[in-house]
Amino acid sequence: CDKIRFQPEEMEMITIDDKEYDIEDMTDQQKLLIGQIQNCKAKGDALKLDLDMIQVALNAYITALKEDLAE
Predict the structure, then answer these.
(1) Confidence class for position 7, pLDDT limits 50, 70, 90
(2) pTM above 0.85, yes or no
(3) Cβ(52)–Cβ(60) below 8 Å
(4) CA pair distance 16, 3, nearest whole angstrom
(5) Rounded to an integer, what distance in angstroms lies between the CA atom of residue 48 and that of residue 19?
């Protein structure tokens, strides 16, 4: 995944393994695959955000339990 880079401003070019490709020259299948890659990256980013929020909540619950037990 780290070897694929999109130029988000115009989405005319994509870089894969340090080689640039013009999206306009790609087939519909290749464009569909690019869309799927973008969707997977977006979902992965959303899941990472969810995991970060869960970790914060978990830490807060643990802290609250420890404080309650210490009373």
Answers:
(1) low
(2) no
(3) no
(4) 6
(5) 28
CB-CB contact of 1 with 41 (8 Å)? yes
Is residue 7 within 8 A of residue 13, CB to CB? The reply is: yes
Give the number of residues written for the chain. Answer: 71
Q: Which residues pair with 19 in a beta bridge?
A: 16
pLDDT tens by residue, 41-64? 999 999 999 999 999 999 999 999
39 φ/ψ angles, rounded to the nearest 5 degrees: -60, -45
Q: What six digits make up the tokens of 63?
A: 């802290």
Name residue, tokens 């306009």.
24
Q: Look at the block and give the residue holding tokens 């999109």.
A: 6
